[in-house]
Amino acid sequence: MQKPPRPTPRxxxxxxxxxxxxxxxxIEQAMDRFRGDRVAEPQLTGTWMAHLLISSKxxxxxxxxxxxxxxxxxxxxx
Length: 78
Description:
By secondary structure, the chain is an all-alpha fold. It contains 2 helices and no strands. Helix 1 packs antiparallel against helix 2.
């Protein structure tokens, strides 16, 4: 039998925010270079919006994990 793959370590929320900011800055720089280009500008805008949607979903998931209450261990009587 094959063993199920191990989950990859979760990226910290702080690292995730830094990476998202860096990636968006790169997209914004490209948008500045191609502003007014009838083909490139809409494509870059779509890329930017898709990146924000995907990243915000992953970031929200990370934040929910970070802020979730940890289960308490139930102890028996006395």
